[in-house]
């Protein structure tokens, strides 16, 4: 799939140069912005795979915009900096930046940096998804444990019997174990509140 990139740069010539280099390399440049405010607006509207962001720009600088874009929209940002802006790099480390490129931008440094940034972003996303899945599994397991405890207490049965009962209910009602467990817990709470 062709990767979609948003380019944010206040100098028209640099903006044009970068756009041509990216297009030549087979990327889809989906939008242009010349300040941080517009960058946030377009990142939200276009949901690009990557944002290339200049630091020094009018209205809102690139670091502030990157903060919003990477943290709020979870879109990776690759910063474009001038050598004199090295003091910004420490600040950039806080803003969830996938990398930075020092100007002047050339095809030889731009394309590999973009490819690595995209790869890194994809890996991060994979980890986040796996973590979310693990969290969910853990949460489900806790719910099942709790429902099992309720059955054990109510019916005065062993853990194994309670678990089998849960599993049978899940099969009979064609609901997941977690759903059955949640129903049992909510029923139990209603009875306690009564
Ligand atoms: Mg600039």
UniProtKB/TrEMBL annotation:
GO terms, molecular function: RNA binding
Keyword Phosphoprotein on entry: yes
4-aspartylphosphate modification, residue list: 54
UniProt xrefs under PROSITE patterns: ANTAR, RESPONSE_REGULATORY
Residues in Response regulatory domain copies: 4-118
PANTHER family listed in its UniProt record: RESPONSE REGULATORY DOMAIN-CONTAINING PROTEIN, STRESS RESPONSE REGULATOR PROTEIN 1
Protein name as annotated: Response regulator
């Amino acid at each position: 799939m062709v990767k979609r990139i948003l380019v944010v740069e206040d100098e028209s010539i640099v903006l044009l140069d970068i756009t041509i280099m990216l297009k030549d390399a087979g990327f889809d440049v989906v939008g242009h912005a010349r300040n941080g405010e517009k960058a946030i607006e377009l990142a939200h509207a276009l949901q690009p795979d990557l944002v290339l962001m200049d630091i020094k720009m009018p209205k809102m600088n690139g670091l502030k915009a990157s903060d919003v874009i990477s943290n709020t929209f979870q879109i990776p940002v690759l910063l474009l900096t001038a050598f004199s802006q090295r003091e910004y790099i420490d600040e950039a480390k806080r803003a969830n930046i996938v990398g930075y490129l020092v100007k002047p931008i050339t095809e030889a440094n731009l394309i590999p940096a973009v490819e690595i940034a995209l790869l890194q972003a994809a890996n991060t996303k994979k980890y986040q998804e796996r973590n979310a899945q693990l969290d969910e599994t853990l949460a489900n397991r806790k719910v099942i444990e709790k429902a099992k405890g309720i059955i054990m207490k109510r019916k005065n049965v062993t853990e194994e019997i309670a678990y089998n009962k849960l599993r049978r209910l899940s099969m009979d009602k064609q609901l997941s174990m977690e759903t059955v467990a949640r129903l049992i817990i909510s029923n139990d709470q209603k009875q306690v509140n009564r």
